[in-house]
Write a structure and sequence with these properties.
single chain; 638 residues; alpha/beta; Rossmann fold; GMP Synthetase, Chain A, domain 3; 2 domains; seven-stranded mixed β-sheet; five-stranded parallel β-sheet; 20 helices; 30 strands; 22% strand; binds 5'-O-[(S)-ethoxy(hydroxy)phosphoryl]adenosine
């Protein structure tokens, strides 16, 4: 039997869930009124499946809700407690953020950015990033943030897709004490794009960079503009941002989020899940380059006028005590991080966190991957000292905000290590089989969402058809997130990982198709198949099987190096495979589909069953042999 933890630290509001269950549309209508609107909507939900428009006719502005609304009471309150990797620090109050954002909004306008334009942001975790996002939101420009670990090729594809005229970047960013030359990467990425008119450069590292007439320094531009820039009154469905994410096809998809629905979702979930209070010091470790950073570093905490910590660098730099040091330094009360980070901290041992005063903590959270029960228990005991509830929050780039989590700000329910518990109010989630029928309790199936919710994506940027097929075609009128799950007999949901060809490596989403198309674009490669195998720290890591073209006689060691280099330059270092295996054929079905299931089984040291559809069973034997041989030589070389 699963252990339960009932520490009774939650509110006891039964009405909210009751209202949500009886009518989710009027429930969200009520929640939306927590935000400040310029004008109210005339229709709460316009649902033309699978396209949802929330709060139609209402006008709102994200930047106004994050900043203007707090000026009367909180202009002196710290919004962001920024900690640089090298020990620099900076405090930005709500008043200072307000003035910076208005100024940068005027900078964008002076560069010709207008409502409806896209602006690309390729920045490290520095305060200028949220400032730039809110400045875009203020004038109705759609921001598209690119994680600063992505390569020039990845940026090129994304800038080309969004047609941004302005890119905001930095001279460099710090990562483990080294400087990542961001401006240089941008220069390489956009060298063929005449449509990019300006690059705005924040001077973070002061490393030498080349500047052309297109390029402008952030500080100089900020000196020349007025501090006043009123917020645009935008339609609730106005596109707030595009965030590219990996899926099952070769190219990343541009997930498009709107304004009024998205903000309503964030405001509510932040209150329910984190039980946020005015006195809290919130710390979410996510990089703003990913959705968790967009939703729960930038928008949700600022909508609530909360104080939060923003950290620039690697979690274990200069050593494994960095996170605990930050929590202690700022008296953090809420800590929201990933299972990968926790697995790493746990491996370093208890002495490190035990030597810090973490008594200010009152609530802990995780996101991004399934959390192993033993890691959950370690988090509960060693970090939370058995007094902090843990929220395990399930959601996706596409969902905008949490859809499954325990909600101490709303209700008290016993926790089970490894389970996200229940859907948030107003969201109908179930687990179904291949035919779409509900599965029995404790049976693995596919997670589906049965009604629209306010934070859901509007569509995929420029590709409504793909939006329909990817998310809404597997089951009629149900959103299909691509995750396995089961519901236990108490109705608790357990998330069991991806059901499709998307990997989660250290919490980062990587599509196998994207990797494979990069590998086969190497001149010597004929075919490739990538898959994930479990890893003690990162959850899973990538392995790739490669078939070379006939006649290629380059040494595999050389090729392996070239392929790794190619993946790093085409995608980014996060997609680096742990191992590449060279084989002469891949196991395929008679219709020619690669049997990834078998490759995965080999990689996982599992028994291979049911190969009846296989075209050539010799391929399995070969893949198995190569894999075994390489594994053996790795072991011997240790
Ligand atoms: C996985 C991250 C288990 C899941 C916010 C989902 C999780 C994908 C959890 C989305 C969780 C996220 N437990 N798995 N608490 N949270 N996932 O778009 O597979 O980067 O589909 O969004 O992460 O990843 P994304």
């Amino acid at each position: 039997m699963t252990e339960t933890y009932d520490i009774g630290l939650g509110n006891n509001d039964i009405q909210t869930r009751k209202k949500a269950d009886s009518d989710f549309i009027s429930f969200w209508d009520e929640q939306a009124k927590n935000l400040t609107w310029f004008s109210f909507w005339n229709k709460t939900l316009d649902w033309q499946p699978p396209f949802a428009k929330w709060f139609v006719g209402g006008t709102i502005n994200a930047s106004h809700n994050a900043l203007d609304v707090h000026q009367e009471t909180k202009s002196e309150k710290p919004a962001i407690l920024w900690e640089g990797e090298n020990g620099d620090s900076q405090i930005l109050t709500y008043g200072e953020m307000y003035s910076q954002v208005q100024k940068f909004a005027n900078v964008l306008k002076s560069l010709g950015v207008q409502k409806g334009d896209c602006v690309t942001l390729y920045l490290p975790m520095i305060p200028e990033l949220p400032v730039a996002m809110l400045a875009c939101a203020r004038i109705g420009a759609t921001h598209t943030v690119i994680f600063s670990g992505f390569s020039a090729t990845s940026i090129r594809d994304r800038v080309d897709d969004s047609k941004s005229k302005v890119i905001v970047t930095a001279d460099g960013g710090y990562r483990r004490g080294k400087i990542v030359p961001l401006k240089e990467v941008v220069d390489e990425a956009i060298k063929d794009f005449d449509f990019v008119k300006n690059i705005v450069v924040v001077q973070r590292t002061k490393n030498e960079i080349s500047m052309t007439s297109k390029d402008k320094f952030w500080n100089e531009l900020m000196n020349d503009v007025s501090e006043v820039c009123p917020s645009e009154k935008l339609e609730s469905t106005h596109p707030l941002y595009i965030l590219y994410t990996s899926g099952t096809t070769g190219k990343p998809k541009g997930v498009l989020h709107g304004t009024g629905g998205y903000l309503t979702h964030l405001y509510s979930t932040f209150k329910w899940a984190f039980d946020i209070k005015d006195s809290d010091v919130f710390f979410c470790t996510a990089d703003i380059g990913w959705v968790t950073g967009h939703s729960y570093v930038v928008y949700a905490p600022l909508l609530h006028g909360a104080t939060e910590i923003m950290y620039e660098g690697a979690p274990d730099f200069p050593d494994a005590s960095r996170m605990w040091d930050i929590l202690q330094k700022y008296n953090a009360t809420i800590f929201y991080t990933t299972p990968t980070a926790l697995r790493m901290f746990m491996k370093f041992g208890d002495d490190i966190p035990n030597s810090f005063d973490l008594s200010s903590l009152r609530l802990l959270g995780t996101v991004g991957e399934p959390i192993n029960p033993e890691v959950w228990k370690w988090y509960f005991k060693t970090i939370g000292k058995e007094k902090c509830p843990i929220i395990d929050t399930w959601w996706q780039t596409e969902t905008g905000g949490m859809l499954i989590s325990s909600l101490p700000g709303l209700e008290t329910i016993p926790l089970k290590p490894g389970s996200g518990t229940r859907p948030i109010p107003g969201v109908n989630i179930t687990v179904v089989d291949e035919n779409g029928d509900d599965v029995e309790p404790d049976t693995k199936g596919y997670l589906v969402v049965k009604n629209p919710w306010p934070g859901m994506l509007l569509t995929l940027w420029g590709d409504d058809a793909k939006y329909k097929t990817v998310y809404w075609s597997k089951y009629e009128n149900c959103y299909y997130p691509g995750d396995y799950a089961l519901k236990d007999s108490d109705g608790y949901l357990w998330l069991l990982g991806r059901a499709d060809d998307v990997l989660k490596v250290a919490g980062h989403r990587i599509g196998t198709a994207e990797l494979e198309s990069c590998i086969v674009s190497h001149d010597d490669v004929a075919e490739s198949a990538a898959c994930g195998i479990p890893d003690e720290i990162k959850g899973e890591v990538i392995i790739a099987f490669v078939v070379l073209k006939q006649g290629v006689d380059t040494e595999t060691k050389v090729l392996e190096k070239e392929l790794v280099e190619k993946i790093r330059t085409d995608i980014g270092t996060i997609a680096t495979p742990k191992q590449i295996y060279f084989v002469s054929k891949l196991p395929k079905t008679r219709s020619g589909k690669i049997m990834r299931r078998l490759l995965k089984a080999i990689g996982n040291n599992e028994k291979i069953e049911d190969v009846s559809t296989l075209e050539d069973s010799a391929a399995v034997t070969e893949v198995q042999t190569v894999f075994d041989e390489i594994q053996k030589s790795i072991k011997e070389s240790k």
